[in-house]
Amino acid sequence: MSAPMPSKLAYVPFVSVANMMRLINHIGLTEMLTGIATYIEDDFRRWELFDKAPRVASHSDVGVIELMPTSDGQVYGFKYVNGHPQNTVEGLQTVTAFGLLANVQTGYPVLLSEMTLLTALRTAATSALVAKYLALAGADTMALIGNGAQSEFQATAFRAICGITKLRLYDIDPAATQKVLRNLSDQGFELTACSSAQEAIEGAQIITTCTADKQYATILTDNMVGAGVHINAIGGDCPGKTELHKDILSRADVFVEYPPQTRIEGEIQQMPADFRVTEMWEVITGKAKGRRDERQITLFDGVGFATEDFSALRYLRDQLETTGLYDALDMIADPDDPRDLFGMVRRAGGESM
Ligand SMILES: NC(=O)c1ccc[n+]([C@@H]2O[C@H](COP(=O)([O-])OP(=O)(O)OC[C@H]3O[C@@H](n4cnc5c(N)ncnc54)[C@H](O)[C@@H]3O)[C@@H](O)[C@H]2O)c1
Q1: Per-residue model confidence (pLDDT) at position 213
Q2: Rounded to the nearest whole angstrom, what is the distance from the C-alpha of residue 13 to the centroid of ligand 1?
Q3: Distance, CA 147 to ligand 1 centroid (Å)?
Q4: How confident is the model at residue 81 (pLDDT cuts 50, 70, 90)?
Q5: Looking at per-residue confidence, does 307 or 352 come out higher?
């Protein structure tokens, strides 16, 4: 007797790295970033529906591995993600990820995807979406400090969503800045390579810090931040891993995703537990004010929250039918008789078990 075919429900759509790259090239990076940003914005509007908890982190001397679950009651999702700042020295990525969506009614997975690329897209989409609400209107210049894996995605999202056309680049490793210059040379930006963070921030209305270092780093000091600036700080996202001098936090209005997680992982881990922050979902739904005036310093203390990954996976799922850019993964054991898991294995081995 031949082995039974897996049931239809056994197959879970799987987006591999190869298919994710095809999808980005097929849809276009700008289009995909703005699409994901729309889904993230929609889910911020539905904030109160979601299960929310700080992500579950497993720390080691060299990095962190985290699980990020959430659900809107209909669909459940989680992401596995790591952060290992020393990895690039070994030729490895600092951040890698994959994630899943499942049907809450049955618990069956409905999508499995690579998320190393998708994380870069959702992080950039979130940053630019937040800046749309907080940065000075008409901002056209951004300092991009930390020119690693996230940086070009950040630049592209800020061009698409906020109108940034001038980039001032700085990295402690000039090779990283050269890589960004190469990658973005034909993307319509005015690019300036800078030899210090201080030089990079000159004339910038938006400052993005996306450096990776497992320590309390000081990428920006208080005297570097002038009136009206919006800071998009995304590299500080772990206990003991920050980018800004704490004096900046006292002077700025700080906006966060989910305070219980950000107080553990974000820049505000340097501040008292009752330090005042505004939640982005409140700004997006109009419950709280974003930018009040032209002199206010706004700071997005972005650590990356589970709902943003959920939104990105939701966006991805909606592209599958029209593009066909996925494989069907035989992932769920689903016997014809749901209680006969044992028999299914026996039949697969020709009853030899
Ligand atoms: N907030 C979020 O949602 C989110 C999402 C993804 C990644 N991240 C974080 O963003 C950071 C960047 O990620 P990546 O994948 O681009 O990492 P990466 O290792 O590819 O790049 C980091 C870059 O920062 C540079 N750098 C380190 N210290 C510096 C300093 N003092 N001044 C200037 N440059 C410095 C490094 O030379 C490197 O080029 C990481 O800390 C990562 O954990 C945050």
Answers
A1: 86
A2: 31
A3: 7
A4: very high
A5: 307
Q: Which residues lie closer than 8 Å to 199 by C-beta, 6 or more apart?
A: 168, 170
Predicted TM-score (pTM) of the model is: 0.96
The residues near 18 (Cβ < 8 Å, ≥ 6 apart) are none
For 41-71, write each residue's pLDDT tens digit: 999 999 999 999 999 999 999 999 999 999 9
Q: Tell me, yes or no, whether 338 and 260 share the same domain.
A: no
Pairing of strands 141-145, 11-15: unpaired
Residues with CB under 6 A from ligand 1: 83, 88, 94-95, 119, 123, 145-150, 170-173, 176, 210-213, 217, 219, 234-235, 237, 302-304
Looking from the CA of residue 148, the nearest atom of ligand 1 is 21
Distance 108 CA to ligand 1 centre (A): 35
Question: Quick one: which of 287, 273, 280, 291 has its CA closest to 256?
Answer: 280
| Residues tagged active-site | 237
CA dihedral 178, 182, 187, 188 (to 10 degrees): 60
CATH assignment at residue 339: 3.30.1780.10
Same domain, 19 and 112: yes
Taking the C-alpha atoms of residue 133 and residue 156, their distance in angstroms, rounded to an integer, is: 17
240 and 312 both lie in a single domain = no
* Same structural domain, 67 and 209: no
Using an 8 Å Cβ cutoff, are 233 and 204 in contact?
no
User: Can you give the residue range of the structural domain that contains 171?
Assistant: 127-304
